[in-house]
Amino acid sequence: MAHPIKMPKVAMAMNEGTVTEWLVGEGAKVSRNQELFSIETEKTAYEVEGTHEGFLHITVPKGETVPVEAVVGYIAESEAELAELQAAGAAVAASASAPEPVAEVAAKAAPTAPAAPPQVAASGTDRIKASPLAKRMAQMDGIDLAQVAGTGPGGRIKKRDILAHDAGSATTTSAETADHGRTVKARVPLTGMRGAIADAMAKANAETAHTHIFGEIDISETLAMRKRFVAKAEKLGTKVSMNAIFMKAMAVAARHVPIANATLENGEVIIWNNVNIGMAVSLEGQTEFDSGLIVPVVKDVQSKGLVEIDLEIRRLIAAARDGSLAPDDTKGGTITLSSTAGFWPGYATSTALINVPQVMIVQPSTAVQKPVVVDGKIVIRDMMPISLTMDHRALDGVPFAKFYTIFHECLADPDTMLA
Amino acid sequence: MGLSKKLMTQLFTNLVRAYHFDELFARRLTRGELIGFYHPAAGHYAPGVAAGTVLEKEDYMWPHHRAHGVPHMLSKGCDIKYFLAEHTGKETGCCSGRTSWHWSYPEFGIFGMTGFIGGGFSQMVGYGWAAQKNGRKQVAMSCTGDGSFNNGRAHESMLMASNWKLPIIFLCENNGWAIHSRIEDMHPTEDIASLAPGLNIPAAIVDGQDVFACAEALQEAVKRARKGDGPTLIEAKTVRWREHDIGTPDLDGYRQRTKEELEALHDRDPLKIATQQVLETKLLTQAQIDKIHEDALAECDACEKFADESAIAEPTVEELRASVYAD
Amino acid sequence: MVQMTYVEAIKSAIQEEMRADDSVFMVGQDIRGAIYPHSKGLVEEFGEDRIVDTPMSEFGMFGTAFGAAMTGEYRPIVDFMFAACSFCAGETLMVQLGQQYFLHGSQTPVPMVILGACGTGKRLANDHSYIPRAEILHRPGLKYVFPSTPADAKGLMASAIRDNNPVFFLYHYDLLMDKGEVPEGQYYIPLGETEVKREGTDITVLANGLMYKHAMEVAEKLEGEINVEVLDPRSFEPFDLDTLLASLEKTNHLVIVDEDHARCGFAAEVMAQVFEKGFDLLDAPIERVCIENMPIPGGYMEPTVVPTPEKVEAAIRRVLA
Q1: Residue A16 pLDDT class (50, 70, 90 cuts)
Q2: In 3-state terms, what secondary structure has residue B197?
Q3: A to B contact (≥3 Cβ pairs closer than 8 Å)
Q4: What is the 8-class DSSP label of residue A129?
Q5: C92–B163: do the CB atoms touch at under 8 Å?
Q6: Model confidence, pTM
Q7: How high is the ipTM of this complex?
């Protein structure tokens, strides 16, 4: 009997996953625990291993997004069984293109994969949840619901998902859709990572009582210190980055103001011992027009030295960019650093949205040289604009100011941070 | 006696008809030729005959549950063939075969019923109200049993009728049994008529086995009502020598009634009493009486023929749906 | 058009119909003195024969109307003052009234109006607050209307009086003094026409009476964020499903707000009808906002148990999730 291969649920909040690559070809002999395909979720990428030995039959091709628990392929026990699966898949694919009576379509929509053998199709767990309207639209448009990602409650496919699916197929073809005299260049569906970002940002904006502080820090001493560290890069094993220094300063400030290192959920604020700092990492988007964002977490910054912090930052950024973040790498954050230093033009600051359920986010920006008054004289210093955002539900102005003051002092006079 | 010979002949004729129709309905039920049920008159039919006979066609009436109101309605002029057809589920039934036993003769001021005892008292106030307001000197006749007066609606109905001096005659056909319960266990005084004085309603008690006595009392009450003097309660003491409805045991509480006590009741058969009276007063000869019986039996036959030859009422659901609301 | 209150509109329809038709009369308790002002001044205009006070005998009072209607010569209005008090007329009202016409061969129409005030908001507790609805709608042969605005009150009352069937015309205490534009002279709203009271594109909210006001309040609050279409059935029996389905063609989402208990209620009935006739129009499960399944308490806890604008908004957001 063939064993179904399912889209695994690798994170609590995971609703769907995209098959980014099949690492083994259709029909290939595979062994147990062999990595079969890679997936991308809202948060991370992951390799999925096989559960049985046998021959691989793929039903969800590369690039498709399916709900968790959806069947993406089968491991056949024999070559004969493989051939049966392949034949069944071809037959269903052929019939799917012809118009069908409504009743049959409903039945067809129920199993996740068109090629599911009867014994698998009969089990309720593979049922695709779709609204009646979405089912009707899919039928009229000839869309296989198994190929549509549901964004409704419990992964239910709704009208908007069918529209997004239609739009997704449209981007690859052409930008010819006319709309009130405008023409569409591309459509970016709010699914996958983009959908997760959209949800998180909207939630932060709608549900937190966010308030901000804006400042400017003289980081001339910090830059000088960093210069000294970089000169010893070979000895230290890394070029200590500004991000590592920012994190260190955040950990010091959090030690003095524990309420800043907290999460607010289910009616209580939990203050954490570990200072686990999330770090916003920009990624490429789904199309050439949008962008992506992921927030891996550097754990236990309070007990790490600058070098340790920096090495972990580098590992996480690399993993984020090549899609090899482990699910755990993006979990457990208690406060977030969202640095715009380097790509924000000088003199500019922005307000960051809180990474819920955390209560604080720190957003340093690009330093510029400015004339400032020191000891009654005008001198040129490296001045860094910065903004911090807090959730006023969890903490108030006094601790917020205290956190910022300590952070400010750490960067203005790094000796205080390291001493 | 204050009854005209013509009226007495009518009363006697209707009594004979009521007797034979009761036999007919009871017989058909036990043979499986009625589709619903039947509550036999069994000695309790003189008050109904009197009530129907003294009314005009236009007067409003709520016939009695017992004998399904057949004595009342045939005496008022209703053609019972439609009622028998109703009891046999035919499309010619007075309710188009939709009930198996409800009455409906709107042109005779009989608008339909409910199967629950005392259920007619509410709308009786409305009939009386309409009769009082429309200026045509109509009256409304409420025919119920002693059991009905155990129901709260009886009080409200009499209260409002008295209050507004409505032209209503409350006829209580007291056969002493509310289903299988004795009136003495269910009612605190010997007479239902005792309820009336407290509501300022005149009341009279008559022998319910004497159709002429019943008619005389009711006629008086009708006269009062037409004059605008308000309601009257007439209590007619009658008997029932069979079970409440055919097929249930004939009980006194939870004890079977004895053959002896039932047979004794037959001495009080209203037809026996009336026959004696018309012969004694020479109102009718035996030959005339025989002819009346003959005609009544022929009428019964004709009704059976009509009902049996009528088509079973089997409307489509669409037809029924279209009949729930009036246009 | 003239400005008048909801209760003045009810009276205005009764007045117009009584002037036009001598067979219309009104029977109730203390209606000459007019505990509720819908009958105020009517006895002076129409006399004691047509504005009739009865003893506290609901069987008899109801029977006066029921019996008179059956005779074919009258079109009575029976006023129970408090709607739930109609159940004092028990079997006559709940069994006989609806069956009378149909069972007896569709020969004797029963043209009458059953009038009663009800509704939450006054914190009077279950017996006064409760809106008899599911019980009535469950009985075939009865019609049922409930106005939300003064114009509805006038048009529905006039049509109810003209109808040849028993029509329950229940109205809400909390709306009595609401003012609105009402057409002058005789004005009829046909029974069985759901009205689109506010156009929208994102979600349909079906609501009536005080719930209609809640729905409008929420719709206005969400303006710009969620485009809410508000439908008012006005007539619950006959009920116009087609207008609701047409709305769902556009919005694909439905919230039903009903000032009754959810269990076996009108909201449940509408859900069933939509599932039967409009399943494919739905993009999300329907939600009901109804009264908690308990006798309605009075006092300050009333809003905990009954639908509020906040509960309506939350339901809208859940359905659109």
Answers
A1: confident
A2: helix
A3: no
A4: P
A5: no
A6: 0.66
A7: 0.92
